[in-house]
Design goal:
The chain is built from five helices and 18 strands. By secondary structure, the chain is α+β, with helices and mostly antiparallel strands. The chain has one domain: Fumarylacetoacetate hydrolase, domain 2, CATH 3.90.850.10. It binds manganese (II) ion. The site of manganese (II) ion has 7 residues, from loops.
Length: 234
């Protein structure tokens, strides 16, 4: 997954650049940061005990090297309640600050499908104690992702089923058109808080139905019009 950095000037060998594949190409998409939108589908906000009308979506981050290619998901340590959250990925190809909503889609390179895997027990404890969420969200391999598809090929999807099956049984189902914050709005808002850069990935939130997996489970999910993802829990 990591591309080598050819440079002899470092005192220690630098870790490689995390990447995602590109559908139908041997070229790679270099990942800069990963921003995740919380509670961006009303029915998921409700299932997590929140009122979607009173609480706008918010952002947290995963580490860029938390991404793994889809195929397997290694069950993490320190948790007995690891949840799936199927999400559309938005890959930024052109950075900026204070990006207007009207031109936000010009900054999108492409789209993909990812899982925002969550150690829900550790996240719950962090919430209760007012602590940061990294232990629940930003652990190794917490983001199994498909290869990306360029917007030049599929356009900018605004509707389409977002779904996840576990062992062949439907667990999550929603539609991109149910997003509280649409892609242009999240790009515009994010770019008012952070300088977006080429290589940033936005995980755009998950519909209702999140739940736990155990070793041996097979997660299959997708976003219609974008791609499908498979991850065996090992
Ligand atoms: Mn999520």
């Amino acid at each position: 997954m990591n591309a080598p950095i050819e440079n002899a000037a470092y005192v220690i060998p630098p870790v490689g650049i995390p990447t995602l594949g590109v559908e139908g190409s041997t070229q790679l998409f270099p990942i800069h940061r990963i921003y995740c939108v919380g509670r961006n589908y009303a029915d998921h906000a409700i299932e997590m005990g929140h009122d979607p009308d009173k609480e706008p979506p918010f952002f947290f981050q995963k580490n860029p090297d938390n991404v793994i290619a889809n195929g397997t998901f290694p069950y993490p340590d320190k948790s007995s309640d690891v949840h799936f959250e199927i999400e559309m990925l938005v890959a930024i190809g052109k950075g900026g600050i204070n990006i207007p909503i009207e031109s936000a889609l010009d900054h999108v390179w492409g789209y993909g499908v990812g899982l925002d895997m969550t150690r829900r027990d550790l996240q719950g404890e962090a919430k209760k104690l007012g602590r940061p969420w990294e232990v629940g969200k930003a652990f190794e391999a917490s983001a199994p992702c498909t290869a990306l598809v360029p917007a030049s090929r599929i356009g900018h999807p605004t509707d389409g089923k977002v779904w996840l099956n576990v062992n062949g049984k439907q667990r999550q189902i929603g539609d991109l058109n149910q997003m509280i914050w649409k892609v242009p709005e999240m790009i515009s808002y994010l770019s008012s808080l952070f300088e977006l850069k080429a290589g940033d990935i936005i995980m755009s939130g998950t519909p209702a139905g999140v739940g736990a997996i155990v070793r041996g489970d097979l997660m299959e999910g997708g976003v219609d019009g974008v791609g499908t993802l498979t991850a065996k829990v090992v």
